[in-house]
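Appendix B, record 7
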Amino acid sequence: MLTQETEARLMNAITQIEKSSLLKGDMGVCIFLFVKGRADGNQKLTEEAERILTRIAKVTDKNKDYDLTDGITGIGLGLSYLARNKYIEGDINDILADIDANVYKKFSLKTDFGGFTKMRLPLTDILMYYIKRYGETTSGNMRELQRRVMRDLMNTIYAERDGMFYDEPYPFSLTKNRLCMFLYELATLYSMGMEQEWIKLMLREMEYSLFSRRPALHANRLALAAATALVGKNTGLERWVTHAAELRSGISIDKIFNEEMPDKCIFLLNGLVGLWLTASFYNSVSDTDPVELDAEYLRQRIINSSAWDRMTYDSDYVCRHYSLDGYCGVKLFLDHLERLQK
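Structure tokens (predicted):
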């Protein structure tokens, strides 16, 4: 259960910061409260989640970002999660109609100028949004439109990639690793039956740059191994399966724990929660040398960390780290570990 002090700090953060986003703002808190309310049988938390959701609906059109962390694509995926798990009622296609139209209009502005516009958009984030939405759409005409947009996004990302596209993020980050996100998207689009021969040609060309590089950070190496393994699994390209296994053989989990993720690195995007998700994903797509992470060790690392301790007394710190990439995400993760250990 949430303590009164923790609940008060969360509500204080929400009232102080008008941020509607999934990973850094109200959308993440909304999901947290819905999940905790159902799990704990606490109607008060559910009602608070509904109140926050109403506020999000009123301010979403003011959000001018399009990335998953802070923008409307992340809000859309959050709403999709709530609808899919029956936390909210209604047709998800009606719920997301305005966000769908906004994202489509923004990307169309870029493509209508034939690539000569200086507009910078988080294209891998937008493609991720479309991939997730495609599975929810029931209208044949809308699905055809989405397929066309996904094809255009895929081709634009591929055409605009530069040398930095293959660079790893410092520090480790789930959302700033454009290469791994794009590989995941290509593998997923391939499994959906889209442009399979063209995707294989893309992958063959990318091999020259990709297979000659090995990320310096072992956490990034694990992320790339997971994405590469998925490509091999979905496309049947054995070279990618082999490369994923080679990357895995060069990963030291101890090095990640002891050197790459210091005491304060516990959160979703660049800490222990993100590491667990990355390792779990790798294990789900690869048959080679699974990554074993000790749940109790992770739990102790988190609850004894300076970052988690600050949540108990530092309201300003909570205001900076209160959503899914912060307190809410870590608490849901700790609850998950507790269920695993029962």
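Remarks on this record: The longest helix spans residues 140-160. The radius of gyration is 20 Å.
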